[in-house]
Amino acid sequence: MAPTPKRNVWWRRHSQARYWATILLFAAAAVALLTVRSDPSVPAQARNLAEAVGDALVVAVVVALAVEPRLLRYFGEEIATQTFWSSFYSRAPDPYRKAIRELAGEDQFCVAAAWNIKMEWADSQKAILRLTVDYVINRENRGSKPHGLTAGIMMYESAFPGRDADIKKYEMLCPQSCFYADLLHDGLVRKEHSPDGRLLVRPADDHAPPYFEVPSDQRYTQVVQLETYVAASGHLPLAVTTPTLQTTIQLTGTALPDLYLSVLNPAEGSITDAVAQGTGSAMAAKGVIQIGDVFITGQAVLLLWRSAEAASANVA
Asked: Which of 50, 79, 148, 249 could bridge across to 33 with cysteines, CB 3.0–4.6 Å?
């Protein structure tokens, strides 16, 4: 094995020193600011600002010592930066702090989640939409043990009798281990219609072992295509439950010129402000739309639509 270049050793040694120097600097700044908070000679507005920044620095130091090594392994400096700045919002409320604590125990991270929603009219009256949902979820096993891959997805049933929802594609792959499985074609799963209006996909044998064990530090991908029928006005929830680095959505289809759409992100704590909205043609022209940034508690997306004519009449 070739020896490690000296400059790489020097860089790692001094990078570590800079890391700890930064932590100590933040800790010292937090102590100084919290001291200013209790000084009556300082104006009240300055004391409040010092308290807010000091509290944020305390949270940042705790995150760096308890969680940050794991975050740097998973998401790199991008999430580290957001973790620090997010601590300024509402002084790191309890749900945020709880999410940070839970993040330290997470092993499965979503590197990227991409949805492509195709909307086409299924009838000449333009009252029924055929919704085709293609999504690709890329995850990484950052646990110390192999992660077993098993089936488990769902789609909402069609709202129109005679036009059935279906799951067209369900594939799993782990490129680094040369693993690939077409779960539908290989008969590894079964479809079930639940009483509450969902079409489920479960393992063909509930007692069978996982299809594959993803080794530690390897990425694995789930590729799915779903189809259902919905009304000309409606909504579709989409979600990734694990911590997520990047989420995108793309809208296509011949029905888009007749629709007005909104993409909401309830995970950000609000359903009043849309991530993106506009006529279907305008939304399609945007191409791939990124939703939010890094999400330490997963990602939730809500797509709403209605006919452009009805939307215009409502505004008028």
From this structure: 50
